[in-house]
Specification:
single chain, mainly alpha
């Protein structure tokens, strides 16, 4: 156990130190959601002036509605970026050595997942602070704060686990960009990050509505949105945690030495 914890801490600390030297990575992670918040939301600021939607008890401006979705965007993009780093490390970096360490591979993957979640949450916190500075305030503090933290941590872990699973199937860096386009954009735009489900159903976009209903990213955003106001998120936590467990188990299976990607030695020779 001591060896496992020491290895976990070493991997997490390495990722944190590497991130601290990559200022541009933090800036790029914040520019995208802040553009949506400051530019896109400005044209739709009063889009909900005609209705009150859950979990809100009164009319809200559009920037307040999409803020949880933009936090989800930060978590999503960092989770996918971590899978890119995983592919690089696996092909020519430290990961080739880590996978031969005298520890279960699932534990090494869990350490990488923990580091990804910590970095995702740090970037999300930075986004919330900048959003507050430009006038979008979120009810983070109160009796519901533990719920908010739990929702954010679970979302970060789920999206990081999805990135791990993708890294199993992305064999080369050249294929990464195309794969991400088929994951990030459908997952984000076919969710409740930018519009509520009832709007999709009301507009007649039934197929988009059905996809959004079963999109795990939708439930990550909804869990966070409801947690901010101390409301019951329904089944969303179970869907997020179930997706987290499924993605991580499949990633661990794929990295097993006897199957999937795990046959590193054969590919190396």
């Amino acid at each position: 156990m001591r060896h496992a914890l020491q290895a976990w801490w070493a991997i997490v600390l390495r990722e944190l130190l590497k991130f601290s030297r990559q200022t541009g990575r933090l800036v790029s992670a914040l520019v995208r959601p802040l553009l949506w918040l400051a530019v896109f939301a400005a044209g739709f600021r009063n889009v909900f002036g005609v209705a009150i939607v859950e979990p809100y008890d009164t009319y809200i401006p559009y920037d307040v509605y999409i803020a949880p979705g933009l936090i989800g965007m930060v978590l999503l993009f960092n989770g996918m970026q971590s899978s890119l780093a995983m592919v690089y490390d696996r092909e020519m970096g430290l990961m080739r050595l880590l996978l031969t360490a005298p520890l279960p591979r699932w534990w090494i993957l869990f350490a990488k997942l923990s580091a990804t979640a910590v970095l995702s949450l740090a970037q999300a916190l930075a986004f919330v602070l900048v959003a507050w500075l430009i006038g979008t305030e979120l009810p983070l503090w109160g009796a519901h704060t533990p719920q908010v933290l739990l929702a954010a941590v679970a979302a970060a872990l789920m999206l990081g686990a999805l990135g791990l699973l993708l890294s199993v199937h992305v064999k080369q860096l050249e294929n990464f960009a195309g794969t991400m386009n088929f994951v990030i954009f459908p997952m984000y735009f076919m969710s409740t990050a930018l519009y509520p489900l009832w709007k999709l159903e009301e507009s007649g976009a039934n197929w988009v509505y059905q996809i959004a209903r079963f999109n795990p990213f939708t439930h990550a955003v909804e869990w966070l949105r409801f947690a901010l106001y101390g409301k019951d998120p329904g089944l969303s936590p179970w869907i997020v945690l179930g997706t987290l467990a499924l993605c991580f188990l499949l990633a661990a299976w794929g990295y097993d030495p006897q199957r999937g990607f795990g046959q590193l030695t054969k590919r190396g020779t």
